[in-house]
């Protein structure tokens, strides 16, 4: 009847739940089913979480298991704020984490304590239980009465307390023997052993694919396929060589541990084990943050996170810990993403003692950059510019700001496209180059011999490849005659009108004084910074060497700015005469290629010296000054007093005491007095010890201090030394992570998910940590990830 007659809606003054006829009333509205959420974006701060019942029913147990496996949010290195309670200032005590480590959580956002197991399983146990000590506070609003520490024990209560029931429920949740799926599919010990053997083989195959950054799946994985993909082919190889696997009976189709979901779970287990070992090494110690951004092949913006720290053996380590997909690249979004990442792995911004980014404004901006946002929370997180980016970013900055240099690099890119566009044109280039070398040999201008007159090629410049611009410009100078003849052949012999016009335009610009001037100017500038760029690409670059290179490079640029124009002009004129290019008279009026932009009459001398040379050099020197400001320069100079070279000839206790003043969180007033006494004793002691006689840098100094146990006797000196070592010099590890990402997420594999991509890249970059992961740890984590029918 409902199909033909609509039920009368109750009026506003009637009670919709009053029903004298004892019929079941029809609800006015049905609450909507919660939507599925992205499990990788679960908030880690307890104050930001929603109720478990607000998740989709199909996801609740997965959410519970994920939170429980990751453990409570315990930012041990956080600077816990004080609040006045009564007549005293109180705060959260980090040692409470050790006493109540399996359930106690702390919210950085609200400065309150929470209970993890009660949050996860209170709805299972029931809400109608009598109020127990602090139960509501620890579950909902949070607990912050730091003077009433007895509330923690009252919250735990007795054996059958609300808290202990929730705790047992959480433990049962990850206990596979309590699973319904396991109860319905009983397995004996023999079958469990067989499952473990199969999973071990899968783990080894996954380890190989992760280490070599190889794709797991193949295009055709059927049994009749000639190549089923690297993973399955590797599994067949393992099966053919492993007698124990051969003897196993054939497993059911859903219990072979070969599915793509199993491969991803194993990769995720490897990722978590690698990160666990890294974060265990850091512990509550200080570290530096290195961040860079790059887009992958699917045009997703990725943020690579690298941590630099000193381990227990005194060794400097830079570890890649995550590749995070960011929707925006603003400083606020980046900081929020980093904060979420730190909370997930129980780190704190208060542990930061250094930052290293590239020169982008959203990273190093003085007021709204990521550097400034982090400095607002931690004044000791000093920013040191990413040295490895120095050369390329300066070139790009100059190219964008100066019209002449920008036009020059645009033309160079077009030249590369025209000359190196096809195999045919490359063959023409080789043929012309060979003819030029033969002419020079016949005329006696070139010598012959073993290793001489090797074939050269043009190198395409790139904004992210170290030294690529410098190599490109030097090749342009060496192969100028060859390039001109190749362009003439293309202009005269091509049937494509577009190629002819491009070749003619490039030829006209190449044979101009303006091109030759900018070519030699930028080539000389990149030559001055080449040694610095090469030195800073080393993975274990010593910070003292970096200071020396930066200082000498700045002096060379300043000296070239003052006296270099005449020598540059002489070099340009000589090049023009050699290649029959018209040399401009510097006393004549300058004629712009765009007359409308030229307002005042100036001479060629004035334009090329003041508008080009001086402007470019001033901007370069300013770029160096911005990236190495007074604070950073003083920091690096004070660190130089630690140098053990030449029998500690640079040792200066006053400089090291000045260095300690940069870190007020690490040295109190009393400790500064003790540090002064320790420095004098330390200097005398290491001079007498032969093990400190031939050290090359402060990195070796830290290592030997740990080996000789002097890091315990002079603990304040060693603490200051670690603060110096964590300052980032070059972010080569960040660049290597992007190289690994390009191998993992290729054009043929561009649909790989963010989680799987992150796991693959971490394992590919941190190969040493991956090799140390034990299969048993992977199996244990794999079993606890979710309910599985196959038991191990």
Automatic annotation (TrEMBL):
GO terms for molecular function: protein dimerization activity. Residues 88-186 form the TTF-type domain. Pfam families: Dimer_Tnp_hAT, DUF4371. InterPro entries: AtLOH3-like, DUF4371, HATC_C_dom, RNaseH-like_sf, Znf_TTF. Residues 1-11 have a biased composition (Basic and acidic residues). Residues 1-33 are annotated as: Disordered. This is TTF-type domain-containing protein.
């Amino acid at each position: 009847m409902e199909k033909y007659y609509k039920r009368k809606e109750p009026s506003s003054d009637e009670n919709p739940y009053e029903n004298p006829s004892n019929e079941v009333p029809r609800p006015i509205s049905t609450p909507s089913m919660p939507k599925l959420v992205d499990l990788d974006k679960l908030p880690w701060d307890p104050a930001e979480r929603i109720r478990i019942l607000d998740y989709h029913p199909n996801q609740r147990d997965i959410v519970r298991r994920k939170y429980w496996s990751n453990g409570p949010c315990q930012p041990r290195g956080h600077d816990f704020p004080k609040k006045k309670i009564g007549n005293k200032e109180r705060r959260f005590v980090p040692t409470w984490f050790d006493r109540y480590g399996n359930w106690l959580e702390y919210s950085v956002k609200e400065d309150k304590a929470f209970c993890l197991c009660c949050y996860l399983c209170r709805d299972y146990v029931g809400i109608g239980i009598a109020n127990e000590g602090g139960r509501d506070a620890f579950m909902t609003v949070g607990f912050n009465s730091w003077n009433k520490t007895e509330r923690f024990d009252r919250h735990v209560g007795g054996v059958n307390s609300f808290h202990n029931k929730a705790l047992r429920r959480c433990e049962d949740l990850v206990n596979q023997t309590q699973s319904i799926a396991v109860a319905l599919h009983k397995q004996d010990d023999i079958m469990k052993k067989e499952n473990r053997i199969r999973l071990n083989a899968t783990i080894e195959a996954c380890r190989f694919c992760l280490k070599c950054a190889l794709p797991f799946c193949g295009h055709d994985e059927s049994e009749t396929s000639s190549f089923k993909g690297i993973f399955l082919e590797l599994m067949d190889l393992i099966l053919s060589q492993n007698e124990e696997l051969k003897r196993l009976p054939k497993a059911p189709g859903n219990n072979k541990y070969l599915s793509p979901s199993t491969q991803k779970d194993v990769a995720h287990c490897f990722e978590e084990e690698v990160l666990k070992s890294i974060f265990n090494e850091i512990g509550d110690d200080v570290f530096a943050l290195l961040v860079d951004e790059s887009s992958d092949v699917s045009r997703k913006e990725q943020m690579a996170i690298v941590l630099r720290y000193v381990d227990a053996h005194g060794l400097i380590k830079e570890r890649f810990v995550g590749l995070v997909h960011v929707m925006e690249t603003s400083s606020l979004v980046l900081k929020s993403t980093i904060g979420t990442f730190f909370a997930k792995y129980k780190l704190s911004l208060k542990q930061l003692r250094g930052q290293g980014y590239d020169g982008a404004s959203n990273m190093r901006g003085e007021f709204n950059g990521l550097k400034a946002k982090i400095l607002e929370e931690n004044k000791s997180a000093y920013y040191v510019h990413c040295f490895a980016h120095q050369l390329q970013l300066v070139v790009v900055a100059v190219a964008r700001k100066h019209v002449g240099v920008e036009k020059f690099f645009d033309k160079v890119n077009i030249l590369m496209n025209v000359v190196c566009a096809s195999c045919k044109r490359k063959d023409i280039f080789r043929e012309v180059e060979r003819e030029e070398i033969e002419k020079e040999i016949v005329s006696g201008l070139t010598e012959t011999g073993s290793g001489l007159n090797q074939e050269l090629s043009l190198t395409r410049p790139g904004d992210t490849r170290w030294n690529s611009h410098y190599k490109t410009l030097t090749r342009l100078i060496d192969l100028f005659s060859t390039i001109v003849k190749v362009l003439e052949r293309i202009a005269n012999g091509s049937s494509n009108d577009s190629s002819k016009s491009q070749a003619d335009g490039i030829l006209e610009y190449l044979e101009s004084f303006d091109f030759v001037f900018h070519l030699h100017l930028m080539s000389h500038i990149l030559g001055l910074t080449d040694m610095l760029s090469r030195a800073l690409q080393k993975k274990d670059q010593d910070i003292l060497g970096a200071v020396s290179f930066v200082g000498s490079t700045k002096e060379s640029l300043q000296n070239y700015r003052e006296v270099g124009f005449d020598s540059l002009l002489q070099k340009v004129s000589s090049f023009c005469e050699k290649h029959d290019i018209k040399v401009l008279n510097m006393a004549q009026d300058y004629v712009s290629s765009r007359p409308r932009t030229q307002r005042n009459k100036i001479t060629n001398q004035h334009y090329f010296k003041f508008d080009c040379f001086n402007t470019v050099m001033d901007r370069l020197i300013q770029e160096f000054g911005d990236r190495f400001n007074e604070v950073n320069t003083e920091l690096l100079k004070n660190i130089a007093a630690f140098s053990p070279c030449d029998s500690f000839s640079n040792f200066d206790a006053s400089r090291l005491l000045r260095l300690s003043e940069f870190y007020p969180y690490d040295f109190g007033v009393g400790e500064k007095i003790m540090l002064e006494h320790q420095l004098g004793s330390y200097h005398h002691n290491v001079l007498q010890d032969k093990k400190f006689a031939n050290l090359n840098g402060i990195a070796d100094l830290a290592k030997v201090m740990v080996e000789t146990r002097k890091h315990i006797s002079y603990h304040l000196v060693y603490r200051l030394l670690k603060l110096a070592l964590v300052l980032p010099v070059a972010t080569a590890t960040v660049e290597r992570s992007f190289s690994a990402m390009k191998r993992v997420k290729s054009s043929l594999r561009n649909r790989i998910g963010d989680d799987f991509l992150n796991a693959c890249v971490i394992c590919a970059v941190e190969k040493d940590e991956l090799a140390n992961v034990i299969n048993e740890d992977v199996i244990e984590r794999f079993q606890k990830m979710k309910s599985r029918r196959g038991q191990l």
